[in-house]
Amino acid sequence: MGQDVRTDGLVVGVLGGMGPQATADFLAKLVAATPVDREQDHLRVRVDSNPKVPDRSDAITGRGPSPGPMLAAMAAGLERAGIDFLAMPCNTAHAFERDIRAAIGVPFISIVAEACAACERNWPAARRFGLLATSGCIAARLYQDHFALRGATAVTLAADAQERFMALLYRIKLGDLSNAVRAAMRDFGNALIDAGADVIVAGCTEVPLVLGTTDLARPVLDTTVELAQRCVRYALGFEPLPVHTRPLAIEALKH
Asked: Which of 28, 118, 174, 227 has the greatest number of CB atoms lying within 10 Å of its CB?
């Protein structure tokens, strides 16, 4: 990374379990992104991996209870345990970011904001971003609104394809990482490319479990990698942590 490693690093908190394999993938990528000379140089990480969190897409689309209170309680518990900042390797759960921020006094690192910033850095000329994301993530406009701010457009799957994509995600959450699942995920990515996408965004942390960054004819952004790399940079002091902003302050900035 070009600077000396701070071996004392900040303590990273992780809201996980959505799903467990995606959380494990994030932790592996966090380790891989950390520059070390010895085992003790790795970051201290406190994880609450809780697969009992209610389904995020069901909540957003009005078919289930909100996960907001549980996520807020998990975040507060991690803060009490001594974390310096918080990350959550689940894109759709960021629809409940307000609940999380209201419960804590430490910075929350948004996977959506980090992914969109990476899109702008890596592909500044791109204007159409294909979104492989849950129905809840799309309904909450987590990525569409970010892209619109820079004059870009999110390309999404047709309604019937989105339903099949959701079924595929739930198979992955149950541990199916088979070649058939990988081929189906490539097909969904190719459908977005056929619809005009310049870049494919893996907007669900299950997607990188079966789709690599070089598996398609267009670039694929692994949002899990982006979150992991940025957490390392923040934890080691290579970049200043974002300022913690509570929800009322966020709303004030919009007006």
From this structure: 227
Burial-class residue 219 by CB neighbours within 10 Å (0-12, 13-18, 19+).
Answer: middle
CA–CA distance, 160 with 150 (Å, rounded to integer): 29
Residue 179 has pLDDT above 80, yes or no: yes
Tell me the DSSP string of 85-116: EEE-S-SGGGGGHHHHHHH-SS-EE-HHHHHH
Rounded (10°) CA dihedral 177, 180, 186, 187 = -140
**Domain shared by 157 and 234, yes or no:** no
Q: What is the pLDDT of residue 244?
A: 81
| pLDDT tens-digit readout, 8-43 | 799 999 999 999 999 999 999 999 999 999 999 999
Task: Tell me the pTM.
Answer: 0.91
Higher pLDDT, 186 or 2: 186
Residue of 90, 116, 137, 231 marked active site: 90
Residues 119 and 105 in one domain: no
- Residue 247 CA to residue 193 CA, distance in Å, equals 36
The domain spanning residue 65 has which CATH number? Answer: 3.40.50.1860
- Active-site residue identified among 116, 119, 137, 204: 204
pLDDT, tens digit, 9 for 90 and up, residues 99-142: 999 999 999 999 999 999 999 999 999 999 999 999 999 999 99
* DSSP annotation of 9: -
Backbone angles phi, psi at 244, to 5 degrees: -65, 130
Would you call 204 a catalytic residue per the annotation? yes
Count of domains for the chain? 2
Can you tell me the distance from the alpha carbon of 69 to that of 97, in angstroms, rounded to the nearest whole number?
11
Residue 63 domain-assigned?
yes
